[in-house]
Write a structure and sequence with these properties.
The chain is an alpha/beta fold. The protein is about 40% helix and about 20% strand. It contains 17 helices and 22 strands.
């Protein structure tokens, strides 16, 4: 495989796809730093409960003390309002810390399991052990939270980590690089900034876990690089998350929640609705209400609304503008490449084979297609790659049940958008091309652990049936024990 740069459409993370022959030399720049982290991990320093709690407390202090700095950085990178940054970039992380801190002792405790009669007397249990040294590659769309959230899982698990923030969110990356060493253990955690060269060099090295948030194309490269060392990966990718609205749905509430979920962060959210399928009988009412709700939330001039942010860069603006060529734009469509601005935009009845319906949009453009029945909606979704999230708005319990049972998606939400993210009892992750593995709450902890099986036996009551010489009677009797 020859060296070449590969860039994702949505996440915009760029890495070099390299051959294994030059891998060792390519990664030498950071090899000694990773070796130092491994030495620290092997010393056992990071495994104690007290150390993990201290690091979580330090992260809480960082986020609380520097909330204004975080808000300012993401505003410079993405035009996010203070309120949006507070909840999407800071509050979610503080909530995760609170959960992990409250439950860490229980999560670290060995989980007892039963033992078979053949092993009597014995006790069996599972220990969740830290994997070791992790590589965490953050994303630009939520540049603070999507870098810090997996780090919290690594801390709780007792791992060391290399943290690589997104180079596109320059201000947030610089802030993370500045603040983390001031608060958490620099023996166990390092931040490496940079772009494709730095990321690609890191991927040549041996890690014990790689956690990547981004798009499918780079996800494949990350997984390929991990396979060279048989490194486990968590891939939080994306895809085209569908949103279905049937004739029984509460149209006003549905439109309000869809408008919020789609246009927050200008659609630059991996679980934002990527298209809407609406039942024909309520199509006109839904579109009318959706436009009304967009204007309630952002006004008729979103460009001047401080709650409405900006696209990450002009290249993405140009990409998004290309989706609108020869489409029926029924609302919005205002584009200012230089200002990195695209207004909330609705596209009606795009071809199923068009670019806007085959690629993840990752912007404030929402295609709407009319369907004649709820089963046609489900069939449409299932004919496409499995999404990270799937949404349905309905009062019809039969349709809801069919949707849950027939649609394969990483996360399903009924009658709302994205709200599963606030429930620490639910894992967040994809399936198929939308990712693998999950995190959130206890799943953040287990994502950076492996399950160590332990059985303890007594010297008492020796069972000689298993030892040679074997007889037909021994064989028969042992078969009764191991059923």
């Amino acid at each position: 495989m020859s060296d070449k740069a590969v860039q994702d459409t949505s996440c915009d993370t760029t890495v070099v796809e390299f051959s294994s022959a030059n891998g060792h030399q390519f990664g030498e720049q950071y090899a000694s730093q990773v070796d130092e982290l491994r030495t620290v991990f092997q010393s056992g320093k990071t495994k104690s409960y007290a150390w993990r709690i201290a690091q979580l407390d330090a992260m809480k202090k960082l986020m609380q003390k520097h909330a204004a700095d975080i808000q300012a950085a993401v505003n410079l990178d993405l035009g996010k309002s203070k309120t949006e940054a507070k909840f999407a970039e800071i509050a979610l992380g503080l909530s995760e810390i609170a959960y992990l801190r409250k439950n860490l002792k229980r999560l670290m405790k060995p989980q007892k399991v039963s033992s078979p009669l053949a092993a009597f007397p014995s006790s069996s249990y599972i220990k969740y052990e830290p994997l070791g040294v992790a590589l965490i590659i953050g994303a630009w769309n939520y540049p603070f939270h999507l870098t810090i959230a997996p780090l919290l899982g690594a801390i709780a698990a007792g791992c060391c980590a290399v943290i690589k923030p997104s180079e596109l969110a320059t201000n947030t990356s610089q802030l993370i690089a500045k603040l983390l060493p001031e608060y958490i253990d620099t023996d166990a955690f390092i931040v490496i900034e940079g772009g494709k060269e730095e990321t690609s060099q890191l991927l040549t090295l041996k890690f014990d876990k790689i956690f990547y948030t981004g798009g499918e194309q780079v996800g494949k490269i990350v997984m390929s690089a991990a396979s060279r060392h048989l490194t486990p990966v968590t891939l939080e990718l994306g895809g085209k998350s569908p949103c279905l609205v049937d004739s029984s749905a509460d149209i006003k509430t549905s439109a309000k929640r869809i408008a919020w979920g789609k246009f927050i962060n200008l659609g630059q959210t991996c679980i934002a609705p990527d298209y809407v399928l609406v039942e024909a009988s309520v199509k006109d009412a839904f579109v009318e209400e959706l436009i009304k709700q967009i204007e309630v939330q952002y006004g008729k001039q979103p460009k001047t609304n401080s709650d409405y942010g900006r696209i990450i860069n002009s290249r993405h603006c140009q990409r998004l503008a290309g989706y609108l060529v020869e489409q029926d734009v029924i609302y919005g469509g205002d584009i200012d490449i230089q200002a990195k601005y695209i207004s909330p935009t609705l596209v009606m009845e795009p071809s199923s084979q068009s670019q806007i319906m085959s690629e993840e949009i990752f912007g404030p453009i929402l295609p709407i297609k009319t369907m004649s029945s709820t089963q046609e909606m489900i069939d449409f979704v299932e004919a496409r790659p499995h999404p990270l999230a799937a949404y349905v708005f309905t009062k019809d319990t039969a349709f809801q049940s069919n949707f849950e049972n027939q649609v394969t998606a990483g996360n399903i939400c009924v009658n709302d958008i994205s709200m599963f993210m606030v429930n620490h009892q639910l894992p967040f992750g994809g399936v198929g091309t939308s990712g693998m593995g999950g995190y959130n709450g206890k799943y953040s902890f287990t994502s950076f652990c492996y399950e160590k099986s332990v059985m303890k036996r007594s010297f008492r009551l020796e069972n000689n049936l298993r030892y040679a010489p074997y007889t037909s009677f021994k064989t028969w009797l042992m078969s009764k024990f191991i059923r």
